[in-house]
Automatic annotation (TrEMBL):
It comes from the Eukaryota. One of its GO terms (molecular function) is SCF ubiquitin ligase complex binding. InterPro entries: F-box-like_dom_sf, F-box_dom, LRR_dom_sf. It comes from Medicago truncatula. PANTHER family: F-BOX DOMAIN CONTAINING PROTEIN, EXPRESSED (PTHR38926), F-BOX DOMAIN-CONTAINING PROTEIN (PTHR38926:SF10). Coiled coil: none annotated. The gene is 11431916. This is F-box/LRR plant protein. Residues 4-50 form the F-box domain.
Length: 296
């Protein structure tokens, strides 16, 4: 190696080391500075995770309110940003976490999916408007997908048809939305290898829960902390143990016993930012989980 090459290589390594401290929006800006910065911004180790939870670039700042970026102009900016960022990643992204408050559209999902063929974990935002066709295209690209945090952004249609067709390796799911009988049937049919399942702090239909617990043979852990188990709109069980004791279940069930869960521990600290407060509480529930692999 010549002296120049050696210096170039050291410069590259130093830049990459520094860039590990940037968020994705800053990384995008850095990539536009010059050729050598652009090259360093494409280092595979910078792109394992595409974390869109906090975008600090002024033109891309995402307010902390539901349905942010719902207007056309914001949506277009988001699309351009996602296309450019994922083009830097060299197909190295294995995890995508959306900002909870963005309004997800087909074009966003597809822009990412086309450039992330090795995606394993997907965390969806709270709301959006995804068509069946959009989902079909995305899932066709994501054949390696193993884990999804599901929200109301994809709630109104047959999400699992596309999963069953293209993603055969799903082992972890978190429902940050209602779980009913239709969803339970879909899980039994399309995700037979499921190991980790979380319904943390969400309402769940009683029959739907029984169906998955009795039918998914590979279930390892199910998180039911603060879950309301309901039937015909009525809350059925004040203690989950009453229900679970009647069933012959081999998997581990996590429930909140004596305020032992993360939510209760957070409330008991005196940190004011940990107190229940609408959207912040929702976001916290979406991010945290007693099953480590489903937290982010
Ligand atoms: Zn608790």
């Amino acid at each position: 190696m010549t002296k120049n090459n050696s210096n170039d290589s050291m410069f590259y390594e130093i830049l990459v080391r520094i860039f590990t401290m940037l968020n994705v929006a800053d990384l995008v800006v850095a990539s536009m500075v010059c050729k050598s910065w652009n090259l360093a911004c494409r280092a595979p180790e910078l792109w394992r995770k595409l974390d869109l939870r906090s975008l600090s670039l002024r033109s891309l700042s995402v307010p902390l309110s539901p349905h942010a970026w719902i207007d056309e102009q914001s949506s277009n900016t988001m699309t351009q940003f996602l296309k450019y960022a994922t083009s830097l990643s060299g197909e190295n992204i294995s995890c995508v976490i959306f900002n909870y408050c963005v309004y997800l559209r087909d074009v966003h999902l597809i822009s990412i999916a086309e450039r992330t063929p090795n995606l394993k974990r997907l965390v969806l935002p709270m709301s959006g408007e995804i068509s069946k066709n959009g989902l079909e295209i995305a899932m066709r690209s994501w054949r390696c997908l193993e884990s999804i945090t599901i929200t109301t952004s994809i709630y109104d249609f047959k999400f699992f048809d596309a999963i069953g067709k293209h993603c055969k390796n799903i082992t972890s799911l978190k429902f940050a939305c209602f779980f009913g009988q239709e969803e339970a049937e879909s899980l039994v049919k399309y995700t037979p290898n499921l190991k980790f399942l979380s319904f943390r702090d969400m309402p769940i239909n009683h029959r739907a829960l029984c169906r998955v617990l009795n039918s998914l043979e590979h279930l390892d852990v199910v998180n039911l902390c603060h879950t309301d188990i309901i039937d015909y709109g009525l809350k059925l069980y004040s203690s989950h143990r009453n229900l679970l004791n009647r069933m012959n279940i081999s998997c581990k069930i996590i429930t909140c016993e004596k305020r032992s869960c993360l939510m209760c521990k957070n409330e008991s600290t005196n940190d004011p930012t940990r107190q229940p407060s609408g959207i912040l509480e929702e976001i916290r529930n979406w991010r945290e989980d007693e099953i480590d692999s489903l937290a982010h």
